[in-house]
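Appendix C: a fully annotated inverse folding record. The material below is reproduced so that readers can follow the format used throughout the book. The structure is listed first as tokens, followed by the designed sequence.
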């Protein structure tokens, strides 16, 4: 599910990001951007609701793929802003970090449950710092936020991978829980790449 989601995001973000007309439209229309953000959060809420109420992965997976498609459209200006070489290098770096930390989370016998609540609080703190930095526009704060974001999403990747391993021991991999696991890992990798950028 995660690989399919990443593929859908890339299939939309890459060509749209290389289309000057689409990028200009996305950059010049704040209402379009707000609409995309609202649609992304609505799809996220729908995925969580469906996955918790249903055992079938089909509906939750379909909503997840639509969510990933919306992310691809939203990320088109990011693709346009950076060079292709930077994007490929950053994706390769993020994938390598994601794979190493994910493998650690999968094989470690250490319980990472306590780490999860700390990381969640740190995530809220990071979001607050990002909002504040929108107003003060400090380049030093931006760099610090990016570094903290990379470490935070590395930790979340390990935590989520351990949770998925535990879930797989007790639940059917074809259930909607698999889609929730894919969603968590997708968001971990995507945010890791964005903070590296």
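Designed amino acids, in order:
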């Amino acid at each position: 599910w995660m690989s399919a989601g990443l593929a859908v995001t890339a299939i939309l973000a890459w060509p749209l990001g290389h289309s000057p007309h689409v990028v200009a439209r996305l950059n010049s229309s704040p209402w379009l951007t707000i609409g995309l953000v609202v649609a992304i959060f609505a799809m996220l809420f729908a995925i969580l609701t469906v996955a918790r109420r249903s055992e079938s992965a089909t509906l939750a997976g379909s909503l997840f793929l639509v969510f990933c498609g919306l992310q691809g459209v939203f990320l088109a200006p990011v693709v346009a802003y950076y060079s292709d070489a930077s994007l490929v290098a950053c994706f390769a770096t993020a994938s390598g970090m994601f794979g190493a930390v994910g493998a650690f989370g999968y094989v470690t016998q250490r319980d990472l449950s306590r780490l999860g609540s700390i990381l969640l609080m740190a995530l809220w703190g990071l979001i607050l710092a990002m909002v504040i930095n929108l107003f003060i526009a400090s380049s030093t704060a931006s760099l610090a936020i990016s570094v903290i974001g990379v470490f935070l999403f590395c930790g979340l990747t390990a935590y989520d991978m351990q949770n998925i391993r535990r879930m797989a021991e007790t639940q059917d991999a074809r259930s909607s829980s698999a889609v929730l696991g894919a969603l968590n890992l997708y968001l971990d990798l995507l945010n890791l790449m964005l903070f590296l950028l």
